[in-house]
Specification:
The complex is a heterodimer of chains A (450) and B (383). Chain A has 450 residues and is α/β, with parallel strands linked by helices. Chain A is 52% helix and 8% strand. Chain A starts with 14 loop residues before the first helix and ends in a 5-residue tail after the last helix. Chain B is built from 15 helices and eight strands. Classes of the chains: A alpha/beta (450), B alpha/beta (383).
Amino acid sequence: MEQKKKKTSSAKTLQTAREAGNFGKRILASARLAAEEGKPVAWSMVDWWLGGTIAKAIGIELCYPENYGAFCAAVRKAEPFLDYAENDGVPNTTCGYARNGIGYTRRLKENNFIIPEDAPGGGMPKPLFLLGCGAVCDARYKWFQSMGRYMDVPVWTLEFPQTGVAEFFMPGYKEENIKFMVRELRSFVEFLEKLTGRKMDWDNLSERLDTTFKTHELAHKVDLLRKSVPSPAVNTDFWAIMIPHLYLPDDKEALAFYQRVYEEVKYKVDNKIGAIPNEKYRMAFAELPPWHTLGIFDEFAAKHGIAFAIESWNYHAPSPLPESEREGVNDPLELIARYSFHKFNEYTPTAQLNCMDPTIFTAPYLKWVEDYRIDGLFCHPLLSCRPATYTLMHLRNLLMEKCKVPSVVVEGDIVDLRVFNEEEAHVKIEAFIETMDHYREIRKKEGFEW
Amino acid sequence: MNELKGLARAAQIYLDPQQRARELKAEGKKIAGYLCCYPPVEIMTALGYVPIRILGDMNEPITEADAYLPTVMCAFYRSILDVAMKGRYDFLDAFIGAHACDGAERVSYIWRSYLKSPCSFYLDVPHSNHAAAIDFFKVQLNYLKDELEKTSGCNFSQEALREAVKLYNKQRSLVRSLYKLNRQDPPLVSGSEMLQVMVSIMCIPAEEGNSLLEEVIEEVSNRSAGPGQKKGRILIWGSLIDNIAMTKLIEDCGLNIVIDDTAIGTRSFWVDVDETSDPFEGLAVRYLDKIVCPRTFRDTKGTRSEDLDNRFKYLKIMAKEWNVNGVYFNIIRNCDIHGYEIPEVRDYFEDIGIPVLVIEQDYSTTALEPLRTRFQAFAENIG
């Protein structure tokens, strides 16, 4: 009998999540069309809305090698690019997205900058410049600098200050950070104007910002709805719907899309419709997913009733910028700086309360486990992404010590399928069920609310 | 009174780099431990602290850190946290973490979460040398000063800071003089001796370090037998080395280590602080802009070739002045900032006819022996 081919992608539980992939395809198609029409195209890192919005306001089309890496992994076509980067001397321990991007760029160069016909998703066209970003990890600018090796184009790095918890509360410290970010954004505008010979369209930028705030507010409201029991949406839904709010929040279509996401999730909450049929356990996922094997979460749901109620802090839209921060701010660059800084520091009071560092990748989960009534944390240490991995052991310790929430560790990678062991993941989850049951009892005895 | 002098004294300090700091602590001095080469030692010194560089230990198996850090991270920083959790730095009065790279940043955070000292500061080091970044870094240095001042027991003075700048500039000048002795063939100082001196001066007060350097320079300038001529004269580029097991292995394979561009080597000493009217200005420029490490992004310049010269020309100059005929890239596994740079620096050297050996190593003395044949082959190749 012919064996049925195993599905590696997730079916997703939200209808809107099933449609979200179109945004990713649209980003690539728009970039290729712009290139064909002789319009400027740049490759950008996810920069938490710092530079991308500005570049688009001056008329530059963006595509995102990081997202392209996830896409190549999801269709299981990343490995040849990984090999090609490693073959040029890039260590196989560097970021999977980066090696995918470097391998792709090397092939693009060797094809005289004509996109190879077999490029997954139609490929990315040669950019006018590369937009790196200093937030979160060194790879975000070192990777882009190293892609410059294959393309004689300038690289711009957006500064993104990273603060310690105690320092955040020092007098004047936050405002110094904002001042620095605004000056850096002004330099970026000058760079763009010089490179393109265009003037910044400030009205366009303000309009884009306005749309971004609206899109993100809806995205945030969806996050809040997900606190409901049973969970109306799960991690695989989020990893699909995040594409528009991460890459296109300033786009009217993204705003309309999020309105529909919100309505769909709200309907499920109002009618107590769970994302999975028989929710028994609620888990959180940290931090970046195995894009090549998202279907495994459907299997965990079907087999054990596990709903991944919250996940991947860094991909979520922040809560809206407090009015006190917006008041009297007329410079869109300052508004951008304040908003991006807010994204990275809004959980700093939680970190301070728990006497720990850092805020990023760690403190949000301390709040989430309670808000989302989490039974266990799925830690996914990545063999090629250290910044999303460095704090996972620390996070496990904190969740156990402060909240009596256990965790399970399943090693893998965002892109590199070769280092993920599906069977091992199943065995570990199987064993983890008992652990979650045990700590439910412990939390109950110790007076926790969930 | 310690009777050992020069290289013998350096070898003694190297064996237990924290011993002198513990002695000084017992005498009532305050000790500040710092990560990487970005926290300015001048500020700590001006406030009466004895600054010491926090090191890992290639001889110490990582056991404690496993509970706090994943295995996929930089082994050097894992080792640092490991020895710290085992109490090696429990005498510190101040801990200065730094956003030097991802590893340093995250270990700074985790260190502070578990190991408490009277003073603790996380120094955010911007990613670029932009004008705004230098100004921001200057502000950061002022915050560092304020925080140290709270626990130092003395008041900050610009004059004390200016004196500290002079003191460390003298140290840098002495280090450069010492390295210059290796321009000749055969070199006068072995790579292992040099490393012992570098580790030593980073772990004792600057005045003592300067005396030690003067003794070493006098001693090796007059020596009749140094490391001797080997098959190749190499430059080491990349992640730091803080254990002579590594340098001895390289030298045993027939290679003279004549110069390096690493963080426990020239990178920490090669350039001075300008004596500006506001000393924080000179410090910010020196530490953020003048220290050349791949962790600091420099804006793209002109053509690709001009850009590469802007980033790496100093290496070409080093290679020429120290008459190098091979380069060893020392990459501690999972060191991203050097990892991404490998193809470009490799091609840059090979374009000027200098062969390169790239090794990713695990920062463990027990994992060194398999590397021997690679160094031997490289020595044969360039000899």
